[in-house]
Amino acid sequence: MSHPPIHLADDVAEALERMARARNADPDALANEALREWLDESTEIERKVEAAMTDVRAGHVIAHERVKQWVESWGSEREVPRPR
What we know:
Oligomer: single chain
Distance between the termini: 50 Å
Number of domains: 1
Radius of gyration: 23 Å
Number of helices: 3
Helix content: 55-70%
Strand content: under 5%
């Protein structure tokens, strides 16, 4: 599959070249690895956000005030149990 070239900012291209030389690696392979990791992380974040929004839409939420009371109780003699 043919892909259009990616145009990097000069400072990014220079940093990539430096890193490739330091690692004795191909700059294209490093860029591909970095993009793959970013895409994987972004996909996982989007999945988690969608799962959280599904919970919110279903009413599975904890009121801010309850969480605040719990956090403020940490380290006190009357620590509040974690809200559920």
